[in-house]
Batch of 4 targets.
Target 1
Amino acid sequence: MSHLDPHGSTEPRGWDSPDASAPAPALHWPEPDIDPGQWHRRPAVLPDPYAESPARPYADLTVGGDPAAMNGHRHDPDDSEYPTTQLEPVRDVEPEPEPARPPGRRQRGRRRAGADRPPTQQSVPSRAGRNLPAAIAVGVGLGALIVVPLFFYRPAFLVVVAAAVGVGIWEMARAVRRSGAHPPLVPLIAGGVLSIGLAWFSGPDALSLGLLVTVLGTMVWRLGDGPRGFQRDLTAATLIAVYVPFLGGFAALLAAPEDGEWRVLVTLAAVVLSDTGGYAAGVNFGKHPMAPSVSPKKSWEGFAGSVTAAALGSALLLWLSLDVAPWWGALFGLAISGAAVLGDLAESMIKRDLGVKDMSNLLPGHGGLMDRLDSILFALPTAYLLLAVFVPVLE
C-alpha cells in the first residue's frame, strides 16, 4: 500500500517507492570551498592552553592554527557574510565627569560630619508626639488673647469668641470634605456668629434659636446646588452647627453676667489643669490604654491625673474667686475634667473616622484651633449648668 504525497504528488514515497533500494543522491553543499568533512577534524595533539607565547598568545588555541576556526569555520578572505568580523574593537571609555555644582548653599542632606564639624542635631518630639516648647508658647499666647479682653474690655472677648467659632467651622468643613460631604460654609459661619451674638444679648433661649436659624439657613442654601448629596451635606452641616457654634455659644453665656470674667476664667483654668495633669501623668505613668481604638495615647493613669489636678485646682480657684465651698469646687473640677476628656475623645473619633491627624496646621505644636477647642467646647455647657447652681445669677 502506497502513501499519498501530502503536497499533491501521486507517486509512492518512502519504503513503498520502487527506487527505495537505490542510494540517495548527494546533497548540494552551498559553499564548495568549505569541505564539510573539516568540521569534525581535530588536531592530533591538543595545544597547551597555558603555554606562554609573547607573539601570538591565542594562536595555539585555534583549530589547526587558524584563528578563524575558533568560531567554527575556516578563514575566508571574504568575511562580509559574518557581520561580527566588521565590528570595531571595544575600547575603554572614560566615564563622563560629574557636572560641577554651582556655588552656594549645599543641598539638604549632603552635609557630612567631621572632626571639626559635628553632625546636625535634629529636634526630637516629646513622648506625647508634639513640639512641647512651641505648644507652650502658643498656649500662653492664646491664653493672653482670651484673658486680656475678658478683664479689660468684655465686648472684645465676644469678638474673640466669634472669631474662634468661625475658624472652627472652617476647619470642620474642610475636614469633612474628605468623606465626600460639602457643607455650605457661608451660612454656617454667618449662623455661628449670629448664635454668639444672640447668646450674649438674650440668653440660652436665643442661643437655641440661633442654632435653628443656622440649620435652616444651610438647608436653604444647599437646595441651590441640587438634590444630589443633599442629605449627606445637610447632616454634616448640622453636626458642625451643633458642635462648634452652639457649644461655643455657652462661652458668651458664661461671660454675660457681672462676674462673667471669673466664670470664664475658672472654666478655662479647670480645662488647662485637666490637660496638664493628664499629660504629666500619662507621660510618666501611663501603661493602661483608656480607649486604644479612638486615642491610643490616652491612659487611665493620665485620666486620674486629669481629674486630680482639676479637682484640687478648681477647689482653690472657686473658693478664692466666686466664694464657693472647696468641696463644691472639687466637684466642679471633676465634672469639667470628665467633660474635657469626653470632648477630646469625641474629636479623636471624628478625626479617626475622617482619616486626619489634625484639623489643620494653623497652630504650631497644637495642630488646628479645633484641636484646642475640643475639650473646651464640652466643658462650657457643663460649667454653665454647674455655676448656675453653685453661684446663681441675681437679676
Note: The chain has nine helices and two strands.
Target 2
Amino acid sequence: MAVLFPHLDGLRIDGVDSVGVRVRIDAKTSGEPAACPGCGTLSRRVHSRYRRRLSDTAITGREVVIRLRVRRLFCDNSDCGRGTFAEQVPLLAARYARRTAILQRLLCAVALALGGRPGARMTRHLAATVSRMTLLRQIRALPDPDRGTPRVIGVDLSRAGDYPVVLHG
C-alpha cells in the first residue's frame, strides 16, 4: 500500500468500493495522539468524529474519492485558547481542502500548461473533472515568482535631461 499510495500511508483503510465510474476508499486516522495546533500539547481524548470527502488522482482512469474519518480532540492544556481541535493529515491534504495534495499539484500543472478551457477539457480525460474557473483560481493562488536581485544598477545622466535614468542589468 505504501508503495502504490504513499499519501495514504499511516491511515487505516476500512474498505475500497467500486461504484460506477468512481472508486471510493473508506479510511480513518491511526488513533495516535495528535498535537494541538495552538500549543502543541499531545491529546488522545476524543470529543467527536466526522467525515471528510477528498477527491484524489485517478486509478485506472476512474475518479477516486477518499472518505476520511477524522477525530476532534480535546486540548488538555488549560492555558491554550482552543477547547477542541481536529486532527490533520498533512501529507494527504491541507486544512479544509477537498482535494488531496497530489491532485492539487496535478491541477496546478494542468492549469499552468493549458489554462482555463483547454485545461478543463484535459481534466475530463484525467478523471479529475474541474471547471475552467477552478483552474484559473489555481493559477491565481500560486505565489508570485521570485524576480531575484538585479546584478548591475547604473545611472545614465547623459540622456536624462533633468531626471536621472536608472538602468537595471
Note: The mean pLDDT is 89.
Target 3
Amino acid sequence: MKCQLHEYQEYSKDFILDHPYCALLLDMGLGKTLSSLTAIEELINVFGDVENVLVIAPLSVAEKTWSDEIAKWDHLQHLTFSKVLGSQKQRLAALSKKADVYLINRENVEWLVNHYQRRWPFQTVIIDELSSFKSSSAKRFKALRKVRPTMKRVIGLTGTPSPNSLMDLWPQIYLLDQGERLCKTITQYRNKYFVPDQQNGHIVYSWRLRPGAEEAIYKKISDICVSMKAKDYLQLPPRTNNIVSVELDEKDRRKYKELEREYVLEMKDADVVASNAATLSNKLLQLSNGAIYDEFGNEWEIHEKKLEALGRIIDEAQGQPVLVFYQYRHDLDRIQATFKQAKKLDVAAGDIDAWNKGKIPVLLAHPQSAGHGLNLQAGGHIIVWFGLTWSLEYYQQANARLDRQGQKEPVIVHHLVTTDTIDEQVIKALENKEVGQEALMAAVKAKIEEYRG
C-alpha cells in the first residue's frame, strides 16, 4: 500500500531524524510505529547512518504490530526484520540472522544484555511503550542502563510517560539522555523536584511535587520530547461511555457486605499503605465481579449478576463483535463457561486477523496484555469492561484498541458497575482521570472510616 504520511506524522519522523535521542509522546492512534519505521528507513537507505536497529516492545506488539506495519506499506517492504522471541534457542537463531530490524519483548531485555555484555551490537534502539521502563529498580531498566553508553540513537515511544506520578519520568528520560536533563540518579531527581508526602518515621510512602516543579521538569525535557494529543489531529467517530448498573439481590448483597466487613476490619487499626490497600481493593473488586479466591487459591462464586448483564449486551449487539476486558482468571473462566462463543485473545494464534475479519463474535482480553499497540479497530466498535481497573493508563490504552484511527463506527464502551460496591469508586476515579494508586488509597481509607464509625 502506498503511504502518504499525515503532516503530524511527517513532523514526528523529522523529529527523530533531527534528534539522536528523543521521545514521541503521542496519543494512541497517531501512528508512532509508522513514523518511526519511516525514519529508520531513511536513516538506513538515504543517509546510510543506521544498521542493526533493535525494537523493544510488549510481547504482543513485538510479535505482530511492527512486522505488520513493515509488510503493509510499499516504502518499507525492503526492510528486513527478525523476531527475537520464544525459547532461548529460537532467540539465538533470530539474532544470528542478518536483518535491518530486530524485535524483542521487554521481558528479554536483561537476557539480551547479558548475552552480548561488552559486545552490544545495537547502536539504534527504539523503546516502544517507554513507560514500561518507569521503574528505576526494575531489572530491565538496570540492564539497558548498562549498555546505554554504546548507543548512538535511542527513540522512546509512548502515549502516557507518567501515568501515576512524574517520579515515573526519571528512568525513561535517563535512557534517552543518560541523566543530562533530570539528574544522574533518581535520588538527586527526587530531592530536587519532590518533598515527602505520606510517611511513617523515616519511611516515605509517597512524594509530592515541589511548587513549580512540574513546569520546570517539562521545560527541561522539552527539547527532546514531542507531545501530541489525538483530539487535536484526528476526526474519529463519536464515542459513548455507558454505565451498566448491576444490582445484587438481598442475599448476594449480604454476602458482599459480610466479606467486605471482614477484610476491612483486618485493617481497621493499621496504617493504610499501598500494598495492603491494593490487597483489600483486589478482594472487593473480585467480589463485585462475582467470585473470589480464598487463601488457598480456590475460586468461590458469589453471584452471576455481571454475567447476566454481559449476556444482555451480547444479545443486544445482534451478532456484532464485542470486545470484553476482564481482570481476574476467575472472570475469564466464568465468562468462557457461560458464553461458548467467547475466545481469549491469543496473538500468536492469529486472533487479531480473525477478529478484524469478523470471525470472533466475543473476544476476551486483559487490559494489561492488550493495552498497547494492537490494532483491533477493524473488527468491532463495542467494548465491555466486565471488571474495572484502577489504572488510568491501562484503561485508556485498552479503549484505544477500538477507539483509534481507522475506526469507522461510533464506539460504545460499556462499564459493568455493581452498585454500592467498590466498582463505584473506581469508575468515578476513571471518569475524573485520577491517578490510580492515590484514588485506590482514598477509597480504602474511606471504607475503613465507614466501619470505624
Note: The chain is about 45% helix and 20% strand.
Target 4
Amino acid sequence: MAVWSLFRYRNSDGSSKDWAVRSNSDGSITTRWGKTANRLPGVSNRYGVQQRDIERQKQAKGYVWVGLVDIDVNGNVRFPDKPLPVTQSQPLGRQAITNQTSPVTVDKLYWHVDCRAGHATLLDMGIALRRWLGDLEAWSQAQCLTASDWSGWQRLNDASLGEEAFDLSGQIHREHGALPWLWLMALKHAAFPGVSVGIATESGRDVSADLKAEADVLALFDTDIEVLRPLAESLGLLKPRLNLALAMVDQTDHWF
C-alpha cells in the first residue's frame, strides 16, 4: 500500500465525501475520491501540478485534512496501525464480527493548521497562541509536570510571527501529553477568520472543540475534565462554574 493524504468535506445534511492524494516517483499526482467509506472508487492521474497546490484548492472548497492513510490498488482505505476494514465482499466470520463490534480506541491525533488570514488576524492569533501557552506552562508547573517535547510548539509559534500564509501538520502522541491538544483546541474554538484547524483520530473522526464530547481523547492522555477544568476555563474551552457561596458573600441581607 502507498501513503496518501486524506481530506474530508462535510455536507449540510450530515453526509460527507473524501478525497485523497499522493505524489508519485515519476512526478505525477494520483487522486482518489468517493463518499466517506472504507473504499474510494474514483481515481485519476495528473501531471504538471504540485500536491501542495492541489491540496490548497481542495481546502479552499471546504475540505478538511483528516490524516495519512494507506490505500491499495483497489481503493481500500486503511489508517496506520489499523486492521483492514470489513467489507461486504469478505465472509462475515468470527473475526469479521469481532472487528465490527470491538471498541475503537484513540492511539494518536493528527492535526493540521491552514492559515490564509490577513496580517491583522495573524497578529491577533499569534498573541492568543502565546497567551494560551503561558496558561499551559503555569498549569503544568503547578502540576509538577515535565515539559512536553512536542515539536508543534515552536513550529506554530514561529509561523504565527511571520507575515505570510502557512500550512502546518503533524501528530500528537500519548507521550506528548494533553497540553498540545488543548492548545490546538483553543485555536480551533477561537475560529479566527481565514484559519482552518483540523484535529482527527486515526479512524478519521474529526475531533471537535467541545471538550465534554471527547471522552476517548481524554482517555488517551489518562485525564478527565475535572482535572483539566481550571486550565480549560482559562483557555475558553469550558464556561467557568458559578461559585454560589462566593457569590452570596457580597449580598446585603435585607431581612428585618
Note: Residues 2-86 form one domain.
